[in-house]
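>> Question from a student workshop board

For tomorrow's exercise we were told to take the sequence and the ligand below, predict the bound structure, and bring the output to class. My setup keeps failing. Could a helper post the expected result so I can at least see what it should look like? The ligand is V47.
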Amino acid sequence: MNYCLKDKSEQEKNIAEKVFSGKRINNSEALYLFEKSGIDFCGFLANHIKEKRYSNNIFYNKNIHLEISNICINKCNFCSFYREKNSQEAWNMDIKDILEYLKSKNIQDLTEIHIVGALHPDKNVDFYKELFRKIKNTYPHIHLKALTAVEIEFLAKKENKESKQIISELNNSGMDSLAGGGAEILDDKIRKILCPDKTNSESWLRIHREAHELKIPSNCTMLYGHTESYADRINHFEKLRKLQDITGGFNCFIPLKYKAFGNNLNINSEIPLVEELKNYAISRIYFDNIPHIKAYWPMCGKETAFLSLCFGIDDLDGTINDTTKIYSMAGSDEQNPDMNSEELKTRCKTMGFDARERDSLYNII
Ligand code: V47
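>> Workshop helper replied:
Here is what the output should look like for this input. Compare the format with yours to find the bug.
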């Protein structure tokens, strides 16, 4: 540990002291890091935490995404992915299409399928139950990380059932974990601007709590870099950290930087790389109770994702095999995201890290 703290402020020395002794930082310390500290200091602390936990290991998984449809009734203002039912750019797969599609992917070699449903007006819980059962019948080794809290709420309303019941039914049909999307910023004033018709903050948190109570793990995300302040990000962190204290059910936190292309939010600029790296680092420092902080490289691009490994990130999602369009439609550098294990391992090696393949529950393969 060669970083010189001599010229740092008293607040920074106190924060460093907490981090070195494994203590939790509070919200005003997190705000200090966002507002006053440099990227070097945040990166240094974040890496200290990461190295202590994982040495020089970086985790990744072999996965594909399955985007069943982009027809969605929510029409979130930041979303570049959804289309109206009658749009030429809309797609909608039925179960037969999906099983055919999966045949064209090398599923035997993968451990996970990440399923995005969108709020398709005609799809109900029976559709997903049948789909999950059929996928699991053909590929019993696959972990299904499927649907977000937003889709769970949509299905619960449709069936006039409690969300916990829906989660349990889907789990019995093969859904192994919930994806972390839909969290955006857990503040209903900001949600009014971003996504006025989406699941509110309280319901998003409740649904994840319910999943965790059923012993179903999930991930959590934050969509940042639009209208929110640093204090809003920290309030978002706090809600997730508090829930994690109670349930321990989040496997990882995934910061998702707002991408400006092709949506209705009317914010045309994106935050700079330095802000993005600092945000990764502060996430690692703040979440002492969430094991992994993930860079989702189809969103941030490969170059940023590998750089983020020097700012506290320990987890890369995933091999993908050109199966997601959410971010290519939002203007990501990665228009056909695909990365094989060899590329991933070689890039990590060049940076002095060892890439370790993991399954969805972070067991090393
Ligand atoms: O909820 C959509 C975000 C999320 C934009 O659980 C945008 O392991 C930025 O949650 N700019 C979906 N962000 C993706 C997601 C995810 C991805 C990878 C892994 C996991 C996991 C979850 O993408 C949405 C929203 O927050 N998003 N549009 C945009 N223009």
